[in-house]
């Protein structure tokens, strides 16, 4: 079995404790991972603090060059990364390969930004310039659905701005993050990036730590609220990417043959464990039955199996807790609506669930109101477009959303009223490092990616000179 180590102050070290990482497709032990102690987390923060002045003093070009070598190293080892990712996370190997390729691409793009000085006023009276300075130590807290990509969302911008970083992966998917740590150990100056895995017990300490200037967090809304509370004592900067309950609205006149595959892939990628997945589909009554039939056929045709097997289209749920949670959603969906595909487990080890389509449900049913985060899609019938916009917006969450139809003007009219950070038209789940990404309402705080995302890793310093 491969040995995994924490990265603290440039050294690969054993954890104070150990924890087991299970392959969700087999429920067999995949590896022992190091479990960091509170002291090890503190040592990682101290190392990041000590490394900060020298890292911040480098030119942005020098930092950029080092960040780009990380992308090269990930690509050089892409095959091993993808296999490990499938084994620890469960997603089909082609999805894991895509996650690794996107990670390198995101790192490259995000490393390309600059932090120019902005001249606000330059006249006989005064010269006012706005500088963007790094914050210090950044804590990056990562969920289990995209364990590599979400690091690639956060790390390049944090480093480019001149911050140093402590990464805390999710307890059920720490291995790829620790493998990244191994690469970074001989790539970056000691302490610039540290990786400490835990058993769900160090996130609060990192969020409250007096020497951490900012937390960039991706995870559930409930945990995001806890991060906010722990961060309050030191007025930490926060970027929170939280839960979503994305609605797709299929307008009258949409073509079911075109729409159904788009809805299906938007809902079931990564077994539905995507913050931006379609979690509610509102379909106009005129095409409701046909869209439901097509979705059910696609669900029946899905190949649910170990992600390492060729041909698998949907892997297992990532962990037992999530598997039990989604089974519970299926049970309540069975009471509130009509299951027209799936709804069953597989008679084998592993956290497998057939993709499940639930018809005849509405707002007020648990399966519609709550984020399921699994391979289950409720389909809601509607008659009136303005009423359905209100229904879609009647949620405390607002991450993404989509509108599907043939009438461009009507698509745009509806899209502009959806209360979410991103709205797609005739697609879902298309994003890139050049587009600010963030949630409305309880789906988050702040944005990631692009210049706006970079700005969140900086402190504005205004220099105001008398003339
Ligand atoms: P989670 O909130 O359970 O865990 C996320 C991370 O927080 C883990 O690393 C965990 O160890 C850590 N953590 C646990 N308790 C903590 C505490 N008190 N303080 C600080 N950190 C703590 O989320 P999850 O189950 O890993 O991920 C699923 C959720 O993440 C879903 O709600 C999904 O929508 C959301 N998500 C959002 C985005 C986005 O970009 N908006 C992306 C992916 C996932």
Structure report:
This protein is 38% helix and 23% strand. The chain has 467 residues and is an alpha/beta fold. The chain has 2 domains: 6-242 and 443-466, Aldehyde Dehydrogenase, Chain A, domain 1; 246-433, Aldehyde Dehydrogenase, Chain A, domain 2, CATH 3.40.309.10. The strands form 6 sheets. Strands 14-15-16-13-12-18-19 form a 7-stranded mixed beta sheet, sandwiched between helices. A 6-stranded mixed beta sheet has the order 9-8-7-10-11-21, with helices on both faces. It is globular and about 65 Å long. The mean pLDDT is 98. The site of nicotinamide-adenine-dinucleotide has 29 residues, from α7 and α8.
Bound molecule kinds, no repeats: nicotinamide-adenine-dinucleotide
CATH architecture classification of the largest domain: 3-Layer(aba) Sandwich
Task: Classify the secondary structure makeup into a structural class.
Answer: alpha/beta
Indicate the overall shape: globular
Q: How many helices in DSSP terms?
A: 15
Radius of gyration: 23 Å
The N- and C-terminal alpha carbons lie at a distance of 67 Å
Strand order within the widest beta sheet: 14-15-16-13-12-18-19
Low-confidence stretches: none
Mean pLDDT: 98
Could you tell me the strand content as a percent range? Answer: 15-25%
Helix content: 25-40%
CATH topology of the largest domain: Aldehyde Dehydrogenase, Chain A, domain 1
Oligomer: single chain
Which CATH class of the largest domain applies here?
Alpha Beta
């Amino acid at each position: 079995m491969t040995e995994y180590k924490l990265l603290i102050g440039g050294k690969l070290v054993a954890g104070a404790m150990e924890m087991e990482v299970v392959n969700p497709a087999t429920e067999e032990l995949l590896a022992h991972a190091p479990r960091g102690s509170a002291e090890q987390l503190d040592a990682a923060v101290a190392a990041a603090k000590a490394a900060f002045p020298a890292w911040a003093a480098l030119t942005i070009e020098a930092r950029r060059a080092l960040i780009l070598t990380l992308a090269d190293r990930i690509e050089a080892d892409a095959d091993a990364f993808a296999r490990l990712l499938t084994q620890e996370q469960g997603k089909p190997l082609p999805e894991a390969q895509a996650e690794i390729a996107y990670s390198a691409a995101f790192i490259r793009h995000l490393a390309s930004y600059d932090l120019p000085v902005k001249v606000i006023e330059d006249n006989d009276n005064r010269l006012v310039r706005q500088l963007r300075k790094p914050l210090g130590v950044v804590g990056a807290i990562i969920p289990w659905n995209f364990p590599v990509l979400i690091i690639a969302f956060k790390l390049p911008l944090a480093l480019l701005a001149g911050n140093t970083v402590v990464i805390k992966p999710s307890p059920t998917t720490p291995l790829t993050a620790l493998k990244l740590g191994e690469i970074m150990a001989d790539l970056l100056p000691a302490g610039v990036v540290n990786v400490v895995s835990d058993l769900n017990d160090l996130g609060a300490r990192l969020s409250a730590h007096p020497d951490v200037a900012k937390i960039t967090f991706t995870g559930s809304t409930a945990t995001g609220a806890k991060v906010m509370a722990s961060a309050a004592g030191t007025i930490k900067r926060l970027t929170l990417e939280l839960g979503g309950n994305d609605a797709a609205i299929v307008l009258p006149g949409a073509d079911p043959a075109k729409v159904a595959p788009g809805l299906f892939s938007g809902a079931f990628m990564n077994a539905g464990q995507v913050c931006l997945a379609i979690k509610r589909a509102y379909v106009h009554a005129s095409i409701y039955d046909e869209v439901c039939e097509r979705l059910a056929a696609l669900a029946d045709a899905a190949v649910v199996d170990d992600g390492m097997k060729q041909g698998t289209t949907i892997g297992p749920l990532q962990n037992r807790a999530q598997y039990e949670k989604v089974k519970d959603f299926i049970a309540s969906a069975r009471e509130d609506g009509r299951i027209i595909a799936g709804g069953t487990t597989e008679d084998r080890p592993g956290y497998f669930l057939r993709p499940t389509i639930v018809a005849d449900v509405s707002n007020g049913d648990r399966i519609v109101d709550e984020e399921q985060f699994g391979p289950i899609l409720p389909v809601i019938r509607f008659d009136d477009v303005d009423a359905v916009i209100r229904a879609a917006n009647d949620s405390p969450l607002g991450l993404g959303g989509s509108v599907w139809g043939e009438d461009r003007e009507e698509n745009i009219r509806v899209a502009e009223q959806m209360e979410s950070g991103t709205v797609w038209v005739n697609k879902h789940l298309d994003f890139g490092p050049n587009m600010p990404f963030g949630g409305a309402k309880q789906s988050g705080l702040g944005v990631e990616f692009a210049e706006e995302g970079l700005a969140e890793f900086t402190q504005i310093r205004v220099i105001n000179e008398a003339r």
